[in-house]
Write a structure and sequence with these properties.
The chain is α+β, with helices and mostly antiparallel strands. It has four helices and nine strands; from the N terminus they run ββαβαβαββββαβ. The protein is globular. The N terminus is likely disordered.
Length: about 180
């Protein structure tokens, strides 16, 4: 798009730690390691959207940067998404529930978390299912969306409420990767 540029940015507590302009006909995933390489991520939690559900990135974070991750998983990782969707979520108890009233809607989020092994993603220790029920305050229309995530954080290192905050994008101490268009 003429006049617009895409930028990949790393933020922590609302502060931009680094950014890279994304080359034309390229995606922000190509900037991942260049953007994060200069940062000391030892012990940090990096949260990403589904675009960054890349096995090589998870391996690099865990093995090179000694960091943990939480990654949203959607259709771009179809086998992993299918694997997460097929977990016996009905047998998993509700771990966290939040309710918000903002942006002209009422939203209820329900989180289920389970320890996993053998997932098609490196260093995955837990899987999460988030069901979001949103009701538009003006129209009254309700939508229900299910989102899945994987994390290298073990149950001992992240309670469900912490995972819910990370996934919601309101972490206390997580580094977030953002794709921006300006």
């Amino acid at each position: 798009m003429l006049g617009q540029r895409q930028v990949a940015a790393a933020t922590y507590a609302g502060i931009v730690l680094g950014q890279r302009q994304v080359a034309a006909k390229s995606g922000e995933t190509t900037c991942f390691t260049d953007l994060l390489e200069p940062l000391n991520l030892h012990g940090a939690v990096v949260t990403t959207d589904a675009l960054h559900a890349v096995r090589e990135h998870a391996t690099w974070l865990a093995e090179v940067k000694n960091a943990d991750y939480i990654v949203i998983v959607k259709g771009n990782q179809k086998y992993l998404h299918r694997q997460l969707k097929r977990l016996p979520w009905r047998d998993v108890p509700l771990a966290d529930k939040t309710r918000d009233h903002a942006h002209g809607r009422d939203e209820i989020r329900r989180l289920k978390v389970r320890t996993v092994g053998g997932l098609l993603f490196p260093h995955a220790a837990q899987a999460a299912q988030v069901k979001r029920r949103r009701t538009d305050a003006v129209t009254g229309k309700t939508t229900i969306t299910t989102v899945y995530a994987v994390t290298s954080l073990t149950a001992e290192h992240a309670r469900p409420a912490h995972l819910a905050a990370y996934i919601r994008g309101r972490p206390d101490h997580a580094l977030q990767l953002l794709g921006l268009t300006s």
